[in-house]
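Technical note accompanying the year-one report. For the benefit of new consortium partners, we illustrate the data format agreed upon in the data management plan: each record pairs a sequence with a structure-token string. No post-processing was applied to the example shown here.
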Amino acid sequence: MNAGSGLRASRWCRCFLCIAWITSVLPGCALIHHNDTPYTEIAPEQVNLANDIHLARDGWPAARWWTRYRDAQLDALIDQALADAPAMVIARTRVAQAKSDVELVRAGSNLQVVALASLDREHVSANGFLGPFARNEPALGLTGPWYTEGVVGLGASLDIDIWGKQRAQVAASLGVSNARLAETSAVELEISTDVAQLYYGIETTYQLIDLLDKSHEIAAFAVQAHEARGARGLEARTSLEQARAQQLAIERQVVSAQAQIRQLRESMRALVGSGPESLPAIEPVALPRSQAALPATLSYELLARRPDLQAMRWYIEASFDRIDAAKAAFYPTFDIKAFFGFNALHLADLFTHASQQINLIPGLYLPIFDGGRLNANLGGARERSNLLIEQYNQAVLNAVRDVAQTGSRLQALDAETQLQKRRIESVAFARDSVEAYYQRGLTSRLAALEARQPVIAEQVALLTLNGQALSQEITLTKALGGGFRADPPVELKPR
């Protein structure tokens, strides 16, 4: 590269830098037309419960909320599900993908350097731009028309992010990555509560079968007693068939309950992601006592406690960054490209001092007429953001509704349970009276056993209430976020 060409390059560089400086203080030629006011998020007073919804205990769920039941079987099942469930694998893969996207976007704003090397065997046209080189006159340095051109060196490029477009794109990618992390916590909550629901559904059905077995024993004795009386001609066959019908009804209930256990177990296996033999056996255990608790107030605390809401807030925050990037696209962009290396028409001259080549190319891009593309892009980014805000507002209302409905249902179940216990006491009094008569020889054993049937029926009703209360307690845990806590919570700042 000779001194004259270097001087001309220096002048061109100064010219470009001057133009870049002038245009950087001027607004872009493409004008912003679609930049409406963003929608607002839900008001704080709407994130609360009615005054008549409360439980005996206050508080939020713990992080590993299921351990409060002190059930080793449940702990093992949930741990297995959180490790191996296909839904968890998908969620973790989405997080890894989002992190890769962040690195990809961030890399675009850094200095890019590449090594270049090329070899070109060419025949120069005598009528083209390099026509004189097509002559073969060695004395003049012309050895045409065939040449073997070689280029080797380093090329570099750098985008100058004056208006923050690339920074906004990186921030948007980070927002999506954070949203995916929150979504992973939401999947963990979904899986853990589903496993607990299925597990206690199985345990409740086990206890139901135990009660049905007791009832079946009484029904079987009644059939035998009526058969004996009928054989002696002491009563009509009608009583025997009625007793047998009751026995068959109980057997049908047992078969249905056993089928339900198999169905729940298969649902558990699909949820955990285990094979036919890898799901451990689930042994019968007593149902735990209700430990449901409801915060005295929800307010904005619920937003930080619900991983699904935090994920949506991160998506909204990312949409604001995309709006910033769409706005920055209206302004001039700058980049610098450079090359240092060797370029020669003859390979023998490639690595000589005279074959050195240096290029420094400042670039300017200024949108003037784009056919409305930039405004359409900005308008689309704004509308997508507004849609996310409205979806978030609806999700918040749904979350408050879920907590309120579940808390109200638990209140009702607690009252029903207390009434049912009193009902059992009353029915048990009649059973005990018949038992006392039997002990004194004033009534038959059949009458004493049949007096137990109403008590068993009421115990089945109480078991159903306890199972429903436990299911609603797990649902409330899910509605309250299952111990998740965003620290610090995402703050929405519309732009």
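Partners are asked to follow this layout when depositing records. The longest strand covers residues 146-160.
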